[in-house]
């Protein structure tokens, strides 16, 4: 195959269709390039349940050992379990997963020791350049002494680490429905939740990278319909849904209603600030107004950042933040090497709910104060031109402030909206929030009319 690496090496990871866009030969070159760029003499490698994952991860390990690095294979794991291994073992790591993408995709999420991210500006472009060179010139010369490969099971240690960070000893018994979406949550949830006073109702725990029941992307409302119905049928206290690599967690309350990731961010922020008084909390610019309000109310300092995990992790490290949250249900913890773990966020929700007598809907109402549109995508011919037209329509209005930290954000006393261009598709993404439903609807409809004009 002749690979076009510009199509598969993204801003934060490698991702593409197997074997059309990449295969085990290229994975082996990526492994060698990863070792050369990081300068590592030992690395850790894990993979998800996709049919192509074991072969790709083994090939990556071959490339790494060819250049003399020792490889610890941890086998089937969630992405945050790989981050745990990287952090606890002090090794750079590679996770083979395409997260919530369809079955024919696969990818690599890479990190330096301590789960520090590898993105375009922190090594990924160098890894791509080496792999491209070796595709043309042939594989690099092997080290005089090749590295070794050992296997290690980190699941129990990962579960113990998470449970040491959240006190669940005194919670009341809870009934929780968990939809693993045939992804890695089916592997991690039983061990993490074992021994807790929970009646767990499992859904789609069978590891199956063809995703026979629904896409493992709970951000799309159609993929949590089964969970919502099951929570109501079981009269459960809550529902949890994980994406394919189980690094994101979505929450459904006892009525089967989705709890916004902004409300979860605010709830967890309040709990983390109780552990780390006066700490900083990161939130991206399309989380709810509720988040910075709750952070200030609990004595913390909110810091607003661009959308995307590399920006969040960079800001976490720079500011020493105790916690960070995104609208996409990525949750980042100082106590977890600044990496994202949906499982730890889920444990916080269980602890908060189980530590008081009321239902989840009442508990989260305090953190869900405004009305949001959710993310609305519009296909446009010229993203920059449409954004400029929106800016021109609002910049001279009274009481309006604009900023361009990430796309265009327009803010008034009663509402705000953000319009961002997709990096990969001809789309503009709109998020609107207001103090009431009628205002949100009016602003949403006005902006969409301008975007789609």
Automatic annotation (TrEMBL):
Domain Alpha-D-phosphohexomutase C-terminal: 375-449
A GO BP entry: carbohydrate metabolic process
Record carries keyword Isomerase: yes
Cofactor: Mg(2+)
CDD domains linked to this entry: PMM_PGM (cd03089)
InterPro entries documented for this protein: A-D-PHexomutase_a/b/a-I, A-D-PHexomutase_a/b/a-I/II/III, A-D-PHexomutase_a/b/a-II, A-D-PHexomutase_a/b/a-III, A-D-PHexomutase_C, A-D-PHexomutase_C_sf, Alpha-D-phosphohexomutase_SF
Ranges for domain Alpha-D-phosphohexomutase alpha/beta/alpha: 7-131, 157-256, 264-370
One example GO MF annotation: metal ion binding
Stored SUPFAM superfamilies: Phosphoglucomutase, C-terminal domain (SSF55957), Phosphoglucomutase, first 3 domains (SSF53738)
Domain of life where this protein originates: Bacteria
Listed Pfam families: PGM_PMM_I, PGM_PMM_II, PGM_PMM_III, PGM_PMM_IV
Record's keyword terms, sorted: Isomerase, Magnesium, Metal-binding, Phosphoprotein
Gene3D superfamilies with a match to the protein in the record: Alpha-D-Glucose-1,6-Bisphosphate, subunit A, domain 3 (3.40.120.10), Alpha-D-phosphohexomutase, C-terminal domain (3.30.310.50)
UniProt record similarity statement: Belongs to the phosphohexose mutase family.
Record-given protein name: Phosphomannomutase/phosphoglucomutase
Source organism per UniProt: Streptomyces termitum
């Amino acid at each position: 195959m002749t690979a076009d690496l510009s199509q598969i090496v993204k801003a934060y990871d490698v991702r593409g269709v197997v074997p059309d866009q990449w295969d085990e030969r290229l994975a082996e070159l990526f492994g060698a390039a990863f070792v050369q760029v990081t300068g590592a003499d030992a690395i850790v490698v894990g993979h998800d349940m996709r049919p192509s994952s074991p072969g790709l991860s083994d090939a990556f390990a071959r490339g790494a050992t060819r250049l003399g690095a020792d490889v610890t294979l941890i086998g089937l794991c969630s992405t945050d379990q790989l981050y745990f291994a990287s952090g606890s073992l002090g090794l750079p790591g590679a996770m083979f997963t395409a997260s919530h993408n369809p079955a024919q995709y696969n990818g690599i999420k890479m990190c330096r020791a301590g789960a520090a991210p590898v993105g375009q500006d922190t090594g990924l472009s160098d890894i791509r350049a080496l792999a491209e060179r070796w595709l043309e010139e042939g594989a690099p010369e092997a080290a005089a002494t090749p590295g070794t490969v050992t296997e290690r099971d980190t699941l129990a240690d990962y579960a113990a680490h998470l449970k040491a960070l959240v006190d669940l000893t005194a919670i009341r018994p809870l009934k929780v429905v968990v939809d693993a979406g045939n992804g890695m949550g089916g592997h991690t949830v039983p061990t993490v939740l074992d021994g807790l006073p929970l009646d767990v109702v499992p859904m789609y725990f069978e590891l199956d990278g063809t995703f026979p029941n629904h896409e493992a992307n709970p951000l799309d409302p159609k993929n949590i319909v089964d969970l919502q119905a099951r929570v109501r049928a079981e009269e459960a206290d809550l529902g949890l849904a994980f994406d394919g690599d189980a690094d994101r967690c979505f929450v459904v309350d006892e009525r089967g209603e989705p709890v916004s990731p902004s409300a979860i961010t605010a709830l967890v922020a309040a709990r983390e600030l109780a552990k780390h008084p006066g700490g900083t909390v990161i939130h991206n610019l399309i989380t709810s107004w509720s988040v910075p309000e709750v952070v200030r109310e609990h004595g913390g300092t909110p810091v607003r950042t661009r959308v995307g995990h590399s920006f969040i992790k960079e800001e976490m490290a720079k500011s020493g933040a105790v916690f960070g949250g995104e609208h996409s249900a990525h949750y980042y913890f100082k106590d977890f090497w600044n990496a994202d773990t949906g499982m730890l966020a889920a444990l916080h929700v269980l602890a908060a709910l189980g530590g008081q007598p009321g239902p989840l809907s009442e508990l989260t109402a305090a953190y869900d104060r405004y009305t949001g549109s959710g993310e609305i995508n519009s296909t446009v011919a010229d993203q920059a031109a449409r954004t400029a037209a929106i800016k021109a329509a609002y910049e001279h209005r009274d009481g309006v402030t604009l900023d361009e930290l990430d796309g265009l954000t327009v803010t008034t006393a009663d509402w705000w909206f953000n319009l961002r261009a997709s990096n990969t598709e001809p789309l503009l993404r709109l998020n609107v929030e207001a103090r009431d439903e009628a205002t949100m609807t009016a602003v949403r409809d006005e902006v969409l009319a301008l975007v789609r004009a």
